[in-house]
Design goal:
The complex is a heterodimer.
Chain A (H helix, E strand, L loop, with lengths): L1 E4 L10 H13 L3 E4 L21 H11 L5 E3 L3 H16 L1 H10 L11 E3 L1 H6 L2 H7 L7 E4 L21 H8 L3 E3 L17 H17 L4 E4 L2 H9 L1 H7 L8 E3 H9 L9
Parallel strand pairs in A: 1-2, 1-3, 3-4, 5-6, 5-7, 7-8
Helix pairs in contact in A: 1-11, 2-3, 3-4, 8-10
Chain B lengths: L2 E6 L2 E6 L4 H7 L19 E6 L6 E4 L9 E5 L21 H5 L11 H5 L6 H9 L3 H7 L8 H5 L6 H16 L4 H11 L4 H9 L2 H9 L12
Parallel strand pairs in B: 1-5
Antiparallel strand pairs in B: 1-2, 3-4, 3-5
Helix pairs in contact in B: 4-5, 4-7, 5-7
Chain lengths: 271, 229
């Protein structure tokens, strides 16, 4: 199977490892993530202002790029891109007048018809659990906590799974030979962009999220979000400074877990 | 001679059909002291905006390259104010953040594409702004290669980004840090440093104008490279 892949800015910079690991491990189960030739920023974060459509142009333009290739489906690894594209799509599908206005503004593009589906790679994997199991060369033998954060699940209309009790990442962990660890903070917010000017918010969130997973016996945490990844991994040293008893955990992208289990050798781009 | 009506800053004039905007304004009695340069579509000095009767679009183009049409509303831009970052190319850290560090307003881009619509060179301006935003200065350099720095993108941008200055930095970084080195150029520079051509220069300096002319016409001319597709 081949599917159009929308990378997003972070997957080309800070989260390059996430992308490389995904492309390689999806290849292993016969799924080609075909990068779009032209794309722009997803328009993050999804604007909740109801009277300013300018902030939705970026997302809709990307969906036009999919449509003009004659495709109906696109996938994206980054939770933030997924959320923004999917929410914008959901909005224009419900509000015809807003779609018309956006199309009228973008008069240099073909009209967006609202027919593109945004699929999360975890959804693709969930339909291929048996293929994944077949490809496992080194079963993980680890206890792993799946951290969803908020963007994959909320608002519930765009959730990749049950928005209160998701299990899609746990299914992947088990298929890869690991043991999924449930923990109460798996759907909680990581603190998001507060990392820019209110670092302490992130220090608190990271402390709680990681300590909770650890208490349940996790050896590692996985995520699909470059921002969660940054907050949970890069901020651990600051957590340690504030809470000397804190013990750290490795954070992985879910695709990195796949390369480990499939025995694909990876060289980290970003340490 | 067929005449067409144009409105220059609101006042109606009749000018001969087929003139460029620049020539039409001169025909009407205006004299360019700014906003004009090579008159051949290369220098980017004559950025102009206009509207057409019965058309909502605001057009942007080069005055020396655009032919007047009946019912055009014209205005000439003398100058485009746009801040340019200061940097030393040698000291730059050419990583994926370098463009956004020098032009933080890049992050204000909402992909509205107004810049692209304004570009008289028909460049995909928004695409190179987006490439710049994600640190892909190679793509930004290639997409902006034909930029003539007229500034129309910057003056139309709702996010107030000076696109053409960003692109110039992208091309400079690409040229210095990524593009393959021109080895023949390095060799020639070395030869010049070693004084290989000093004698020749000294000889030229002492020649009369007539002698130089003669030498110029008698020079060896390299065979032209076959045209590329």
């Amino acid at each position: 199977m081949k599917i159009l892949y929308y990378p997003g800015c972070t997957l080309k910079t800070n989260a390059k490892d996430f992308e490389i690991a995904a492309i390689e491990s999806f290849k292993e189960i016969g799924v080609e993530l075909k990068e779009m030739e032209r794309w722009n920023c997803c328009g993050t974060v999804y604007s909740l202002a109801t009277d300013n459509l300018m902030y939705h142009l970026a997302a809709i333009r990307n969906l036009i790029r999919v449509q003009e290739k004659g495709e109906k489906k696109v996938t994206t690894l980054c939770s933030v891109c997924y959320n923004t594209l999917k929410q914008a799509n959901y909005m224009v599908r419900r509000e015809e007048d807003k779609l018309q206005k956006i199309n009228a503004f973008m008069d240099e593009e073909e009209d967006y018809k609202g027919e593109v589906e945004i699929i999360h790679p975890l959804e693709i994997l969930n339909e291929r659990i048996s293929e994944i199991k077949e490809k496992v060369k080194k079963p993980l033998n680890m206890k792993i906590a799946a951290y969803y954060g908020c963007l994959l699940l909320r608002p519930k209309e765009i959730a990749i799974d049950n928005f209160e009790k998701p299990s899609i990442m746990e299914n992947l962990i088990e298929a890869l030979g690991g043991t999924a660890v449930d923990f109460p903070y798996k759907n909680e917010c990581c603190g998001s962009y507060n990392v820019i000017d209110k670092e302490d918010v992130i220090v608190e969130r990271t402390y709680k999220i990681i300590s909770s997973a650890k208490k349940r016996g996790a050896d590692a945490i996985i995520t699909s979000c470059p921002l969660c990844y940054f907050n949970l991994s890069d901020m651990q040293e600051k957590v340690k400074k504030k809470y000397p008893e804190f013990s750290s955990l490795p954070i992985y992208y879910f695709s990195e877990l796949m390369t480990m289990a499939f025995g694909i050798k990876m060289v980290k781009v970003r340490e | 001679m067929k005449m067409v009506r144009v409105y220059i800053m609101g006042k109606e004039y009749k000018v001969p059909e087929g003139l460029t905007i620049m020539k039409a304004m001169e025909y009407a009695g205006y004299r360019y002291i700014r906003g004009s340069g090579c008159r051949a579509g290369f220098c980017g000095a004559c950025a102009t905006v206009y509207r057409k009767e019965g058309d909502y679009k605001l057009y942007a183009d080069l005055a020396c390259q655009t032919t007047v049409e009946d019912g055009m509303y014209l205005a000439q831009l003398p100058f485009v104010p746009a801040n340019k970052a200061t940097y030393s190319l040698k000291k730059l850290n050419a990583d994926d953040k370098v463009l956004v560090e020098h032009y933080p307003e890049l992050a204000r881009c909402v992909s509205c594409n107004t810049c692209t619509k304004a570009c008289p060179q028909e460049l995909e301006v928004m695409d190179y702004v987006q490439a710049s935003l994600r640190g892909d200065f190679e793509k930004a350099a290639h997409l902006s290669f034909d930029c003539i720095q007229c500034g129309l993108c910057a003056i139309r941008c709702p996010a107030e980004i000076p696109q053409y200055h960003v692109a110039q930095l992208a091309r400079r970084i690409y040229g210095r840090y990524v593009a393959p080195k021109a080895l023949h150029l390095e060799k020639r520079v070395e030869e010049i440093k070693q004084g290989k051509f000093d004698k020749e220069i000294e000889r030229l300096k002492k020649m009369s104008k007539e002698e130089i002319k003669k030498a110029y016409y008698a020079r060896d001319i390299e065979e032209e490279a076959p045209e590329e597709d």
